[in-house]
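hey
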C-alpha cells in the first residue's frame, strides 16, 4: 500500500513538473521580409541587380531597334523585291526575332541567378542572427509573422532584437 502511495506521489510530481515545464515554453515571431528589406546588404544587392538589368535592357533595346529598322526597310521595298530576295529577308527577320526572344529568356534567367547569388548570403545572415537571438531569448519556436494566422501578445517579436543584433 505504501508503495502504491509512493508511486502515485512520484507520478503526480512528474506530471506537475511537466505542466510547469510546459508553461515556460516561449514562442516568438518575426517579419523576415521586413528584416531583409531593411538590411543594408539588400540595398547594395538591389543596386547591383539594377545595374545588370540596365545593361541587359539596353542590349535588348538595341536588338529590337535593329529589328524594327529591318521590318520598316522590308515593308518599304517588299513590292520591288524578287521572290527569292523577299523570302531571304523574311527568314532574316524571323531569325532576328528568334534571337531577340532567346536573348530575352537568357537575360531573365541570368537575372534570377544573380538575384539568388546576391540574396543567399543575406538570407543566411538573417537566419543565423534570428537563431542567435532566439537562443538568447530562450525561444523554442520562431514563426514568420507573414504565415501565422494568429499570434498572442505572449509571443515575442524578435524583429527589434534581431535588428539591434545586426546593428540596424
Amino acid at each position: 500500500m505504501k508503495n502504491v502511495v509512493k508511486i502515485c506521489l512520484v507520478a503526480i510530481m512528474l506530471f506537475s513538473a511537466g505542466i510547469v515545464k510546459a508553461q515556460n515554453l516561449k514562442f516568438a515571431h518575426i517579419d523576415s521580409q521586413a528584416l531583409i528589406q531593411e538590411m543594408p546588404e539588400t540595398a547594395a544587392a538591389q543596386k547591383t541587380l539594377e545595374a545588370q538589368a540596365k545593361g541587359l535592357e539596353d542590349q535588348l533595346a538595341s536588338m529590337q531597334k535593329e529589328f524594327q529598322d529591318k521590318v520598316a526597310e522590308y515593308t518599304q521595298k517588299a513590292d520591288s523585291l524578287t521572290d527569292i530576295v523577299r523570302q531571304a529577308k523574311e527568314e532574316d527577320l524571323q531569325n532576328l526575332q528568334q534571337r531577340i526572344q532567346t536573348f530575352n529568356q537568357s537575360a531573365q534567367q541570368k537575372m534570377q541567378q544573380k538575384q539568388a547569388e546576391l540574396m543567399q548570403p543575406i538570407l543566411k545572415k538573417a537566419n543565423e542572427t534570428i537563431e542567435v537571438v532566439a537562443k538568447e531569448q530562450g525561444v523554442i519556436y520562431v514563426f514568420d509573422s507573414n504565415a501565422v494566422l494568429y499570434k498572442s501578445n505572449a509571443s515575442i517579436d524578435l524583429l527589434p532584437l534581431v535588428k539591434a543584433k545586426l546593428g540596424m
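The longest strand covers residues 27-30. Strands lie at 27-30, 141-144, 156-157.
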